[in-house]
What we know:
The chain has a single domain, classed as Jelly Rolls (Sandwich). The mean pLDDT is 94. Strand 1 and strand 2 form a beta hairpin. The chain is mainly beta. The protein is built from no helices and 10 strands. The strands form 3 sheets. A 5-stranded antiparallel sheet has the order 1-2-9-4-7, with no helix packed on it. A 3-stranded antiparallel sheet has the order 6-5-8, with no helix packed on it.
Amino acid sequence: xxxxxxxxxxxxxxxxxxxxxxxxxxxxxxxxxxxxxxxxxxxxxxxxxxxxxxxxxxxxxxxxxxxxxxxxxxxxxxxxxxxxxxxxxxxxxxxxxxxxxxxxxxxxx
Length: 109
């Protein structure tokens, strides 16, 4: 498979899953300048989620606290930590996400 075989949720930005199960979920997030990963922060009851900022600089938001996320940064969100990402730069950013287990119904808002 190739990442080009999959579409971002908002067509030209947002979340794009590259693999869903059987043991993990993982994919890419592409955010245009000023965009957030989602409208509201979300979390997971049982699984952790790792984010790797592979292209560009953004802001990682965990439990309402903002952290600078320059290219190359890695963040681990533990279960129940509410999280979001914002592109505060003037260029697109690309992030890899990996969910620790495949539990598609584990999302909390």
